[in-house]
């Protein structure tokens, strides 16, 4: 429901349900589970399901927040380029997004799959059953801490990724300010618009080869922040 890749609106619900059933059958056969006795009451069964749901939502939310770092960093660059109003419908999520953020996210997804990142998500699910076996109550403090820390990490990573682009735009603004003082009759606003777009596209093109390094860094952040 909330995990990256599996929660896309572009994936039909029947396929999502089928994948969930296949994963449940796979993990049920590969993980040792202490099945409760036959005297399990309905209230206790509901509480056990609620505990599993709460833990699964927290783990999926942490992965989703970390996965959104690329999108947030791209939106920071788009605002500097003046693309904040260029909204289109993202076919993956069904939400409004900017073209540049969609392009960077799609490239990151392809690199994520090429590095077997979807296997990483399955390993996270397997480890979660080892850390919190079925029937145990997850520690709310650990879950909340992981969610909060993932949000903080997302903002820091997004600023870290977009820092070179922000530095380039800051330098361009300084140059434009000097030109405005040297030649006051020059229309700086008219000149800055194409320069901002051109500089942004150049910096994003230079940045693309470094996205592959973030795929490995994302796996490290998951190991640190996930409650597993």
**Percent range for β-strand residues:** under 5%
Question: What is Rg?
Answer: 23 Å
Q: Structural class from helices and strands? A: mainly alpha
Helical proportion, percent range = over 70%
Order of helices and strands: HHHEEHHHHH
Low-confidence stretches: none
Q: What is the total number of structural domains? A: 1
Distance linking N and C termini? 19 Å
Mean pLDDT: 79
Which strands sit side by side, in order, in the main sheet?
1-2
**Strand elements, count:** 2
User: Describe the biggest sheet?
Assistant: 2 strands, antiparallel
User: Number of helix segments?
Assistant: 8
Detailed description of the structure:
This protein is an all-alpha fold and 228 residues long. The chain has one domain (13-161, 209-225). The protein is 73% helix and 2% strand. The chain has eight helices and two strands; from the N terminus they run H-H-H-E-E-H-H-H-H-H. It has helices at 13-30, 42-67, 69-81, 99-114, 117-131, 140-182, 188-207, 211-225; strands spanning 88-89, 96-97. A two-stranded antiparallel sheet has the order 1-2. A hairpin with a 6-residue loop joins strand 1 (88-89) and strand 2. Helix 3 (69-81) packs antiparallel against helix 7. It is elongated. The model has no long low-confidence stretch (mean pLDDT 79).
Annotation keywords:
228 residues; mainly alpha; elongated; 2 strands; two-stranded antiparallel ribbon
């Amino acid at each position: 429901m909330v995990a990256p890749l599996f929660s896309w609106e572009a994936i039909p619900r029947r396929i999502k349900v089928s994948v969930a059933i296949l994963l449940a059958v796979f993990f049920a056969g590969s993980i040792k589970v202490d099945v409760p006795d036959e005297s399990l009451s309905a209230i206790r069964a509901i509480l056990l399901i609620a505990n599993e749901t709460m833990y699964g939502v927290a783990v999926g939310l942490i992965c989703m927040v970390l996965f959104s770092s690329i999108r947030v960093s791209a939106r920071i660059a788009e605002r500097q380029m003046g693309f904040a109003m260029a909204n289109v419908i993202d076919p993956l999520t069904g939400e409004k997004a900017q073209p540049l953020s969609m392009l960077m996210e799609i490239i990151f997804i392809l690199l994520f799959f090429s590095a077997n990142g979807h296997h990483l998500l399955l390993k996270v699910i397997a480890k979660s059953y080892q850390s919190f076996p079925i029937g145990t109550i997850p520690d709310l403090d650990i879950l909340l801490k992981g969610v909060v820390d993932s949000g903080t990490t997302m903002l820091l990573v997004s600023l870290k990724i977009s820092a070179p682009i922000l530095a380039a735009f800051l330098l361009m603004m300084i140059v434009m300010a000097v030109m405005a003082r040297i030649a006051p009759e020059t229309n700086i606003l008219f000149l800055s618009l194409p320069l901002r777009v051109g500089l942004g596209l150049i910096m994003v093109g230079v940045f693309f080869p470094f996205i592959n390094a973030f795929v490995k860094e994302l796996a490290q952040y998951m190991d640190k922040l996930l409650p597993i």
